[in-house]
Design brief:
679 residues; 3-stranded antiparallel sheet; two-stranded antiparallel ribbon; 5% strand
Length: 679
């Protein structure tokens, strides 16, 4: 896709603008006015003289995304002969899921060994992690509420809080991570402290096993990451037998152990409080939409938890209490859910939020393998636009695309201030700026509370049909507040025929008098395509039962039927001479947001939406229920479509439990990776 292609102004023709890269502004005989970014940015009642995210930060972020894409390509090619033979025999997407699992392990090890140097230069020189670890850190930061609570509550993760916005500032400092070379001292220091080579590909060849604790006897023992039987720690059918007591251990039983250990920490015990700090509270109970450490609520829920899970009278140690809880719930999170109903007063959302944090034995409340894989389709879309290419934004006339994204992101935040209780769905350009802002860690949280008066989560726990409805709401709210369309990518807006939408767009873009809105895109195909809905995280939830699945399918079919009726209506308008055929052709090949499901990695986590944090959502309970199914229609892909090339289709996901993989994603001709049926 040529990022400099523009679309025909078409104002003088009396026809709607044709959405085709073949028609450029030069063909209209008059160049459209150059895009002008706003002089200031209004969010709610406050006006900012400079944006929350800078142009150089977006550029550095896009360079980082290219590094992630290159790493994935290298892993999926699978040419390293040092890797286990079984890994080399897998499909590309299976191999990628395995590699990401190892990267999460390296990320955890690095945090525990990190030195938080105060100087950025010193940190980059001595502490900069390798690209696979940066990739996991990046995905974790895009779950800002969990990231903020985890790095406050869990002592082992406190080093991440100490480095604040270092993930982003170090990328800006380096300029292009793809040209970065770690010094010999850094390579040696990493090997000594983390136990693996700095190079991710070489490290993967050396990582063979992980140590776990038995939920029954608490004995520690090693389990392989992969094996021929498919029961390794990073495989979908993980299972092992404790050599000390014989308990059959799975990810679900490990999640129970993590839960039980958190339950037994007592906020009223000075020793526990001194040793664990905020870690005495359960995951998902400490942080609210306005308070980063609401101990009153967290304490109340912990006290209720202690009513349900009382220490046995013969418990001599805390370990005895932990083992008792694990046995009482039969080593399953499903039984934990049943027994904690009274704790959460039948509040399904709170139950799912809290228990959904107990997925395995890792300290993170987010399943980071899924989080990384979930970002792959977004990266593919940025790649498809040409935005991750080296030098893509080196000249000012190309920078306007990112300036437009920044302007729209601030408008998106302003929209949140107008309706605090609403769910709003970002487009791809807004999501890029939003992701960049979230990479600032605590600074992002501070900006939210200052400007929006609450913490704003990048919510990935909203069910598919709710997400589709929320996108409709966002389109209407944006139009009402800013008097310009929300999307320009070619998707039909809610309630519109294509002809109605393009006619109104033509009218707005050809209006005379007054300066054009900074929210209207530059006259470039990539800028238009980037206003497509950001749907890379959306999934349909399997665990809610057959009745729910039928309802979800029915709603999806209803949306598809509406699109089909719009297409038929527009075809009649073309036949009757009331719609420009070129405008109708621009609609062909453009996939509709929130319509086509593709495979996705388990556990079920869902699409990115702006929401008041703490509202919870439909989180998976580790081991309870099957894998989810993503809704990831490729972003603006299609041969010749104005909004993108065939290369920016949604990436296929990775099936959990071996149940969701197999096929490729709904990519528009390239860029979509195949599904990964559990290893």
């Amino acid at each position: 896709m040529d990022s400099k292609e523009t679309y025909d102004k078409a104002a003088d023709s009396g026809k709607p603008p044709a959405y085709s890269p073949a028609l450029t502004s030069s063909s209209a005989g008059e160049q459209p006015p150059a895009y002008q970014p706003p002089a200031s940015y209004r969010v709610g009642v406050q006006t900012l003289s400079s944006p929350l995210v800078q142009l150089q930060e977006l550029k550095a972020h896009l360079c980082l995304l290219r590094a992630f894409r290159d790493l994935r390509t290298a892993v999926e090619d699978g040419e390293n002969t040092e890797w286990p033979a079984i890994v080399r025999s897998w499909s590309a997407s299976q191999r990628w899921a395995w590699f990401v699992g190892l990267a999460v392990d390296r990320f955890q090890t690095w945090i525990q060994s990190m030195i938080a140097y105060s100087s950025l230069d010193t940190w980059v020189e001595r502490e900069m992690p390798p690209v696979d670890v940066l990739m996991v850190w990046h995905a974790y930061s895009l779950n800002p509420m969990w990231y903020a609570e985890d790095t406050t509550r869990i002592l082992a993760l406190r080093p991440l809080r100490a480095v604040k916005d270092r993930l982003l500032t170090s990328m800006v400092k380096i300029g292009d991570i793809n040209t970065y070379q770690a010094s010999p001292d850094r390579l040696d220091g990493w090997l000594k402290r983390c136990g693996t080579p700095y190079d991710p590909i070489a490290a993967a060849a050396m990582m063979s096993d992980r140590t776990i604790d038995c939920p029954s006897c608490l004995a520690s023992y090693a389990v392989p990451f992969v094996n021929e039987e498919g029961t390794g720690y990073l495989q979908s059918k993980f299972a092992s037998t404790c050599p000390s007591c014989g308990l059959a251990t799975t990810k679900d039983t490990l999640a129970v152990l993590k839960f039980a250990r958190d339950v037994t920490l007592n906020p009223s015990n000075p020793e526990d409080k001194k040793q664990h700090g905020y870690g005495v509270y359960m995951a998902g109970t400490l942080r609210t939409v306005v308070n980063p450490t609401d101990e009153a609520i967290a304490l109340l829920l912990k006290q209720k938890m202690h009513i349900v899970f009382k220490p046995p009278k013969d418990a001599a140690t805390k370990g005895d209490w932990v083992k008792s809880i694990c046995a009482d719930v039969k080593f399953t999170m499903e039984e934990v859910q049943k027994q904690t109903v009274v704790v959460f007063a039948a509040r399904g959302r709170r139950t799912r939020r809290v228990l959904g944090a107990y997925i395995d034995d890792r300290p993170f409340s987010v399943e980071l393998v899924s989080a990384v894989i979930r970002q792959c389709s977004f990266i593919d879309k940025m790649t498809g636009f040409g935005w991750t290419e080296a030098g893509a934004f080196d000249i000012p006339e190309d920078e306007v695309v990112l300036q437009h994204a920044i302007a729209r992101y601030h408008a998106f935040l302003d929209l949140m201030t107008s309706s605090p209780g609403s769910f709003f769905v970002p487009t791809l350009d807004i999501d890029l700026a939003w992701h960049t802002h979230q990479m600032k860690g605590e600074l992002y949280q501070n900006d939210c509370i200052k400007l929006i008066k609450r913490y704003v989560d990048h919510d990935d726990r909203v069910e598919e049909n709710h997400l589709a409805t929320s996108f409709d709401v966002t389109c209407r709210a944006w139009q009402q507040r800013f008097q310009v369309p929300y999307t320009y990518c070619g998707c039909p807006l809610p309630g519109d025929t294509l002809g109605q939408r393009l006619s109104r767009l033509k009218h707005r873009l050809s209006q005379s008098g007054g300066a054009p809105s900074a929210l209207q895109p530059p006259r470039r195909a990539d800028a238009l395509g980037a206003t497509h809905a950001s749907e890379h995280n959306s999934v349909s939830l399997a665990p809610l039962g057959a009745a729910y699945a039928q309802l979800a399918d029915a709603k999806r079919k209803t949306r598809a039927d509406k699109v089909a009726r719009r297409q038929q209506r527009d075809e009649r308008l073309v036949r009757d001479g009331r719609l420009d055929p070129a405008a109708r052709q621009g609609y062909d090949g453009h996939q509709v947001a929130f319509l086509y499901p593709v495979p996705f990695f388990a556990p079920p986590l869902v699409g990115c939406v702006a929401a008041a944090a703490g509202c919870g959502g439909f989180g998976g309970l580790g081991g309870v229920g099957g894998a989810g199914c993503a809704v990831g229609a490729g972003a603006c892909g299609g041969a010749g479509a104005a909004c993108g090339s065939g290369g920016c289709g949604g990436g296929g996901g990775c099936g959990g439990g071996g149940g969701c993989g197999g096929g490729g994603g709904c990519g528009g001709g390239g860029g979509g990776s195949g599904g990964c049926g559990g290893c």
